[in-house]
Fold:
Amino acid sequence: MKKIVLLGPPGCGKGTQSKILIDKFGFFQLSTGDLLREQTMNKNSPYGQEISEIMKRGDLVTDEIVINLIIDKVSDLKDKNIIFDGFPRNLNQAEVLDKSLKEISIELDYAILFEVDFKILEKRIQNRIAESVNEKRSDDNLETLLKRIEVYKNNTLSIVDFYKKKKFLEQLMVWNQ
Ligand code: ADP
Structure:
């Protein structure tokens, strides 16, 4: 059973690739974005309001909240193929994931990095916003998405070296899309 991390900035096409892994290969997706959005809609969640404000700004939700949400799910899905989508997003989360998996005797098999030229990414995001007139997510606006790219550069990219050292990084270059 495979455990795969998908790494990449917003708009890189991770969602499209996850869908293929789910539909064709029976992977289960653990998306911290989805788990957090569930919390914002749950009126009994003590963190709902806080999470919603952070997501609207495009910042990272605190590690404690995110880690607690995801770790439970991992042990439930231990014997399944899992894609981690949107997690880890900083070095601490990557280290905690590694440690938590070891505790239940599993290891990541691959981390796949989606690399997209940041200029192309900004253009793609602008097009996506222009096209999505309906059903806009509250964080689907230019300001927040640009912020999320900054957060990616400042926090998430450091995971790449961590995974390179562990030798399970598969690089995926995406040009010009
Ligand atoms: P997308 O799939 O569009 O790239 P996500 O749904 O993964 O975006 O994330 C949306 C927002 O949820 C992020 O901007 C961030 O505020 C929050 N978030 C998601 N995953 C994490 C995480 N692992 N750590 C901290 N915040 C997160």
Residues 13 and 114 are 8 Å apart (CA to CA). The helical segments are 14-25, 32-41, 48-57, 63-76, 91-103, 118-131, 142-156, 158-166. The pocket of adenosine-5'-diphosphate is lined by residues 10, 15, 32-33, 36, 54-55, 58-61, 66, 86-87, 89, 93, 139, 148 (CB under 6 Å). The chain has a mean pLDDT of 90.
